[in-house]
Amino acid sequence: MPAKKRTRTYDPAKIRAAVFAQFGQVRRAVSTLTPGQLALPTRLGDWTVRELAAHLSMTVAAVSRALERAEPEKADLALLDYPSATAPFAEAIADGTRQLAAAHPDLDALYARTEEELTERLATAPGSRLLDMRAGAMTLTDFLVTRTVELVVHTDDLNAAVPGLEIPYDRQALAACTRLLADALAAKAPGGSTEVRIPPYAVVQCVEGPRHTRGTPPNVVETDPLTWIRLAAGRLAWTEALERAKVSASGERADLAGLLPLLS
Prior knowledge:
With 264 residues, the chain is an alpha+beta fold. It is built from nine helices and six strands, in the order H-H-H-H-H-E-E-H-H-E-E-E-H-H-E. The two termini are 32 Å apart.
């Protein structure tokens, strides 16, 4: 019987720093946007850039709001289950985003308040503190890891919507986002027949089938972090990534089209 894979752990201090760093990058970029740029469409349905920017602040403010609520008795939401756990709340999240954008025309003030509240709340909260979230209860550190996913994915959405914006990606945030989504794939399709490589941040084994033990595995998928994140988040189709040579896939079990996207 194969050994059970250990769940990846994240350094609480590095994850906190990554969330602040990426939110800071977004805050600086949003402060430069003109009214015309804020009115641009995005690839997220009918959301404008203004609404996307408001949503980004909301994903970070969710940490502060959760820390204000009573601590639940036990965790019941695993980190690897989070990417697929938010689908039932998509409509409520979208409504909240539109309301937030309409209520806060001054995005600079909204971002400043969000960052200030997060700094204050995290100053005394241990990473093991449990949070009562809509999708379930999880630790603060785990929830902060999910914030790196939200921040990186939506930073990419902003960059796609506003030509020339080019918001940088914090290395720790990009690494955590890449790793969580890679591990989520391995959890969704457990096995050892296919190796998915996303250098320099992650390598995972997945998909049922003959397990390789040494040498080059028979089924290999390799891509860069941002391409992987776009695939996992549904921003890029598997076939398009192959056609554009954004991903290499060799072997009969190297087709991940049926497993993507991972985020709901």
